[in-house]
Amino acid sequence: MAVQDRLYTAHDLAAMPEDGKVYELHNGVLIEVAGSKYRQTRLAIWIAYLLMTFIEQHKLGGAVTGADGAVELNQYNTRIPDVAYITAERAQAQSDDSYIQGAPDLAVEVVSVSNSDVEMQQRAGEYLSAGARLVWIVNPAQRTVDIYRPGGARQVLENDGILDGGDVLPSLVLPVQRVFEQLKTNP
Q1: What distance in Å separates the CA atoms of residue 187 and residue 111, rounded to the nearest whole number?
Q2: Which CATH class is domain 37-180?
């Protein structure tokens, strides 16, 4: 990849003409990101469905976005989480014609075979540094969910574990096994 002639901002990225590619900004550098594979995208939409069902049943409001919803972490950094949730209060403050401003309250990333553990941990740290209150790193191959909260502590839940929504989605109780039940037996 050639060195850019300057650092780009989220405003620059939003103003770029469509070229059929998807980009994120990493410290001002344009990074082309690949689409998800079948397993990852199915899992992401299933998690979005589970979250939306819970939010509707509990009349919490807010917004759930999918893998095409970019978030502006700061002027030089954007990310596209596989699933994101922002509270009702924050959703009302968003513009329909811009990226989500600030980190989502909950960011969910589904690990693909091309992602390293370090890369995913860095991504969790980026969300938390920008103000996320909860990050789930969902690993379909291992059937685990890594949970990160402010302070950086990592909790790994295996297939028999229970996810909770913390202060982001109070009273959410979601068995990890339920998260993975839509996947084929052999990942």
Answers
A1: 12
A2: alpha beta
